[in-house]
Design brief:
The chain is of the alpha/beta class. The protein has one domain: 3-Layer(aba) Sandwich (Mannitol-specific EII, Chain A). The protein is built from seven helices and six strands; from the N terminus they run ααβααβββββααα. Strands 1, 2, 3, 4, 5 and 6 form a six-stranded mixed beta sheet that branches. α1 crosses α7 and α3 runs antiparallel to α4.
Length: 179
Amino acid sequence: MDGSLNAELLERSGDKSLQSLCPREIALDLDLRNKHRALEVASTLVEGSLGLHAAPVLRALLRREEAGSTALGTGIAIPHARISGIERPVTVFLRGKFPIAFDAPDGKPVCDILVILVPADGATEEHLRLLARVAEMFSDRAFRARLCAATESSDVSDVFAQWIGERASGTVEVIHRDS
């Protein structure tokens, strides 16, 4: 689905959670030795992309992880935090060269990480709706398979855009979920 059509569908859908799902930054084949290093890399990407200082972003992500792991299982984690300095939610996608421990509920290490940052003063319902959409996305086996097969940043972006576009247009017929 082409980008302009996707943007038009997103605008018509009015679903702000869908509009925030496409990662602003994508980095693949990273040397992420552990959870802390993964969050450092994400914070640095945010700093370069948004001009925010990495240190407060990292602190916010680490605080959230201290409250409980954001790993979903099946090799996926969605670290998220509220931060100052942004007006809209921002997502960043990371993939390590090798899976890392992330205290996942299924005990499996994590390779794919979608970091979600939301405005510190943003609406809680919007934040929760975004997290629900992310959980829905990563519960979709077909999405996960396409994401796993994506080896270039542009391919990863296309996988997200396809999933988002399907939801925005209402063309989804069957969602393959894990039980």
